[in-house]
Structures are given as C-alpha cells and as structure tokens.
Amino acid sequence: MDDSRSRKLVHKHSFAYLLVVPVLLAVATAVVLFVHSDLNMAMLYSQCHSRSRLNGLSRLPIIGAPSCFIVSFFHEALKSVRSLASVSVVLSFIAGLLTVSTVESARICNWPNLLIAYPTGAWLVFNLIGGALVWELVIIPSFFHQSKAVLRMREGARNSQEQVEVEIRAQDPNLGSARRHLKVVAEVFAIPISVAIGFVTPSIAMLITNSPIAIGV
C-alpha cells in the first residue's frame, strides 16, 4: 500500500475512532451526575420555583427560577472550604478552556466552522444548561471535524494545487496562506485581557465574597 493511500485511510477512519472518546466521557458524566444526585438539589430548585429563596431574582419571568437555582447552588457550594477549593479548580479549568476556544475562534483556518468561529452560543449553553456534555458531544466533535477538513485541504494541496486553491478561495482568500494565524494581531492582547476581566475577575469576586450579586455576575 502506497503512502498516499495510507494517509487517506488514516484521515478517513481515525477521526471516527476519536469520537468514541468524548461520547464515552459524556456517558460517564451522565452516570456520575445521576449516581451523585442529591435530593437537596431538587429541594433547592423547588424553593426557587416557589419564590421562597432570592425573592427578587426568582420572580423574574422565565429565567427567574433557573437563575435563582444556579446562584443558590454556588452560594451553598462555597460555604465549606473543601467545596470552595473544588470550585476554584473547576473555574480555573474553565478559564483555560475559554482562552483556548477563543484563540481557536480567531484562527483563520477555523472561519468556515461557525461553531468554532463564533463560540458564544455554545458557551451560553455550556454555562446555563449542558455543562460538560456540551463540550463532549458538541464542541470537541466540531474541532475534530474542522481538523479533518484542514488535513483534507493539505492532502489536496499535495495532489492538485490548483484544485485546492479554487476550494480555498471559495471559502476565504486568506485561508490557505496563513491557516494557523490569528485574524488580527490585536487578538494576542485582547483575548487574555478579555478573559481576565470578563471571567477571572468575577470568579475571584465570587469565591472571595460568596455574595449572590457576585455569583450572578
């Protein structure tokens, strides 16, 4: 079997095998959440739904009870030193994921993939509903798919440069010349500053004060 055919087989099958990993992680996440579920969680939401907790927030239409539940969950979780340490580690990990996904969204090669190029929607779902399952079943497979597309273009460039240039120009004229570059140099400074101000600073305020206002922010 020649080398080019071997590469094609690897590109065709390896990504399908890689998808098994996040799917298994998603199943494990769901099982762990179910096994460690607590009646107190249901009672916490019930208190928010009945507006007996955080009255001003829980009375908001539609988003009142879910927002009250999220704020109340962190407020209770941060009352002990052990859970405070655990939440700190989780928030640090999320800050890293947020930085990486924002950097990848600014790379020219990821422009054609809307989920990677515009990650705000996925992050809103991550924060409000799906948690880890959003990363395991949506965002990670999207990165796999885009990586496969980039490799396919590189393989095409070896076989037929003209054909690949036509495909690249159809997507974006700059996609082939600087695939891994950022859209603008300012992103190098804007991304860490925005993550620090928009996520890290409010997280530190939440951990230090354990105030419903800081948690809401």
UniProtKB/TrEMBL annotation:
Key word Transmembrane helix present: yes
Entry superkingdom: Eukaryota
TM segment ranges: 15-36, 56-74, 81-103, 123-144, 184-208
Record keywords: Membrane, Transmembrane, Transmembrane helix
Entry protein name: Uncharacterized protein
Organism: Zalerion maritima
